[in-house]
Amino acid sequence: MIAASSTKMYSPALEFFELGARRIASLSICSFSFSIGCSVNFRTLRRVRKRSIISGTINCLVQSKKNACFQATFSTFRASVLKRINMLRKFLIIIAVITSVFSCTYDSLEDRSNNSGLIIKTGTVCGWCTVNDTLTITQNLIRYVNYTNCGTTKPSVTKTGQIESSELEDLLAKLNVSELKKLNLNSSNVSFDGCDDWISFTNGTDSHYIRFTRNDPKLQPIQAFVEQLNSIKVKYTSES
Questions:
Q1: What does pTM read for this prediction?
Q2: Residue 2 pLDDT exceeds 70
Q3: pLDDT tens digits for 118-154?
Q4: Strands (E), the chain
Q5: Are 190 and 123 in contact (CB under 8 A)?
Q6: How far apart are CA 44 and CA 223, in angstroms?
Q7: Does 40 have pLDDT greater than 50?
Q8: What would you measure as the largest C-alpha separation in the chain, in angstroms?
C-alpha cells in the first residue's frame, strides 16, 4: 500500500504574491520608521531652537541689565566726582579769600606794629613863597614849621606838640602803604605861581614821596589818609 505524499505543490502565482506581500510589509515598516525618526528629529530641532531662543533672550536681558547697571554706576560715580570737584573748588575759593584777607591784615598790622622808625611829613609850597610849610610826625611828636621868606633856612613859625596814640592809630589805619607806593606823582604848579601839596612817608628803610595837586583823583586810594593828615596840619596852621 502506497502512502499519500505530503509534498506542497509549487505555484508561480502564489510565490509572486508572497514576494509582493513581503516587499510591501518591508516598505511599510521602513516608511513608519522614517516617519517616527523624522518626527523625533523635528521635535528635537524645535526644542533646541526654542532653548537657543530662550537662552539668547536671557543673555540679552542679562547683558542689557549689566549695561544699564554699568551706566547707572558710571553716572553715580561721575555725579559724585563732579560734586567733590565743586566742593573742592568752593573750598579753594574760600581759602583764597581768607588768605587774601589775612595777608592784607597782616601787612597792615606789620606796617603799624613798629612805629619807632615812623616819620610822616606833609607840606604845601606855593609860588613867591606865600606858603612853604612842613608838618612832621615822628612817633608821637609833632613839629610844624613855616618859611615865609624865600631863600632862608630859618623858619618864621615853629610849633611843636604831641599826637594822641588813638589819633595816630586812626591816621595809620587809613593809610594803605602799598597803594601809596603805587602813586608816582610829581606836580609842578609852583612853577606857574600855583601850589603843590606833598607827602613823605618813611618807616625804617621803607619810604615814598609824592607831590600832587590838591583833589587829584589819583589820590582816591589814600584820600581818607590825605584828608586827615591835612586836618592835623590845619590845627597848627591856624594856631597863633
A1: 0.52
A2: no
A3: 999 999 999 887 889 999 999 889 999 998 777 777 8
A4: 118-126, 132-138, 141-146, 157-162, 195-203, 206-212
A5: no
A6: 101
A7: no
A8: 201
Q: How far apart are CA 111 and CA 3, in angstroms?
A: 162
Position 189 in a domain: yes
Give the C-alpha separation, 237 to 26, whole Å. 148
Give the distance, in angstroms, between the CA of residue 79 and the centroid of all CA atoms in the same chain.
Answer: 18
More reliable by pLDDT, 101 or 225: 225
Question: In CATH, what number is assigned to the domain containing residue 133?
Answer: 3.30.1560.10
| 74 domain-assigned | no
Count of domains in the chain?
1
- What is the Cβ-side half-sphere exposure of residue 164, based on CA atoms within 13 angstroms? 4
- Asked if residue 79 has pLDDT above 60, the reply is yes
Which letter does DSSP use for residue 191 in this model?
G
- Domain range enclosing 126: 115-238
- List, for residues 151-190, the tens digit of each pLDDT value: 777 888 899 999 998 999 999 999 999 999 999 999 988 8
- Could you identify the residue written with the cell 506542497? 8
- Output 171 or 59, whichever has higher pLDDT: 171
- Does residue 191 lie within any of the structural domains? yes
Strands 195-203 and 132-138: unpaired
Please state at what angle helix 165-173 crosses helix 223-238, rounded to 10 degrees.
140
Residue 126: inside a domain = yes
Mean pLDDT, range 215-221, rounded to an integer: 93
